[in-house]
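Before the break, one more example. Copy the sequence into your notebook; we will annotate it together after we see the structure.
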Amino acid sequence: MKYIYSFLLLFVSCILFASNGRAYKIYTATGKKVSFEKMIKRLKKSDIVLFGEYHNNSLGHWLQLKVTESLGKDRILMLGAEMFEADNQLPLSQYVKGEISEEEFIATTRLWNNYATDYKPLVEYAKENGLDFIATNIPRKYASLVFKQGVESLDTLSFGEKKWIAPLPFPYNSELSGYKSMLTMFDSLHVNENLPKAQAIKDATMAHFIQKNYKKGNLFIHYNGSYHSNNREGIVWYLDFYNKELEVSTISMVTSDNVEQFSMKDKYLADFIIVIDEDVLKSY
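Here is what the structure looks like once it is written out:
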């Protein structure tokens, strides 16, 4: 009941903000304002939609649900998310199919701390509509292994463990801007050449499980941190490597103290950039 009440408050707040245009604005890649309806019309033509998020942005999560519901009116959907690690696919599938209870699902799945407020609505939407929900991310311990010991450490995994990561050896382009910038983003004590490679194995694994589970004629919506798909790098680069035939669209969110003004630094960040008021409620 607490979850439902909190979500309803957020739902009402978002509608009030959205109605007067103060909470968010949607822009095309070139910075042209576009309506929610026109964005949906364009996204409907895609095979894959990557919705890049800020993990703690409540309005962003509400918009994810609204985009999903809108696309689901005309397309058969499949959902997937960075927030579920691939080796948790079985309990996730069992839950959305109604084969186990929510209590069993929570007990057997490594859920993010903000699952109840931010991701549960998407899982429940899949459950209510009989949709597949794919756990796409590499188990955290394997990405950590790459950071600590390098890509070569993945060769030590068993055949069973390798089922939960991208096929090895996986390609890596060190010249992608997102990977290059990671080497200067953090304290030098916590940065080495393995950091962007640990990011890359996440991107490769998510792309692998998206394209592996994609069914022709469906629309696969994937929810991930914006950094994983910004500038059509990361997951997009790997999707293109695995299957060049897929039509991939991207959404990214940024925050600003003036949603009516588009920053040129965000140009081409994604096919659609959602500028959200920086004062919008955070879930943590």
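The two ends are 20 Å apart (CA to CA). Confidence is low (pLDDT under 50) at residues 1-6, 15-19. Try to locate both features in your own notes.
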